[in-house]
Amino acid sequence: MHDQTAVRTEGIAERFRMHPPVKAEVDDGYRGLANEFPHQVGAPPRKPKDIDNAPLTQGYGWRELRRRQSSRRICVEHANAELRQ
Length: 85
Hints:
Elements: H1 3-9, H2 12-18, E1 24-25, H3 31-36, E2 41-42, H4 56-84
Parallel strand pairs: 1-2
């Protein structure tokens, strides 16, 4: 099932509305949820449009932000993978 379909059919968005202190780290598939609840849902930063012609610091900064967000999520991703095996 697609991530956004799960958000709508399983009531995930409604849970965020009912419980404002709840926070989550998500992947790019949940970008819409992160846009709808910016203070509760953290998604990876978007890639700069012209990263090839951008200053090196901008590209490095973007990669570092993605790495940090990924590092916070990896333990949960591994737990999910173990359940599927």
